[in-house]
Amino acid sequence: EEGCQRHREPLEVFCKEDAALLCAICRESRAHRAHTVLPLPEAAREYQGQIQARLQTLKDDRDKLLAFREAEMGRNW
């Protein structure tokens, strides 16, 4: 996105409660004033770490399923 659709300002922070990108004007609004916000680079790093951890869990689960499938196919033969 180019920026805030409401204020036409650059998106500068990420609201953790609403999982939304905010401009400086939105950040100071009543809707977000009490929320936890992070600078965009910090939010990106945080979520990238979470995504990597979940991806690794999925890869491990896939490997277990493939090993189980291979064992079952071997038993059926």
TrEMBL record:
The keyword ATP-binding does not apply. Residues 1-40 form the B box-type domain. Pfam families: zf-B_box. GO terms for molecular function: zinc ion binding. It comes from the Eukaryota. The keyword ATP-binding does not apply. Keywords: Metal-binding, Zinc, Zinc-finger. Transmembrane segments: none annotated. This is TRI26 protein. It comes from Dryoscopus gambensis. The lineage of its organism: Eukaryota, Metazoa, Chordata, Craniata, Vertebrata. The gene is Trim26.
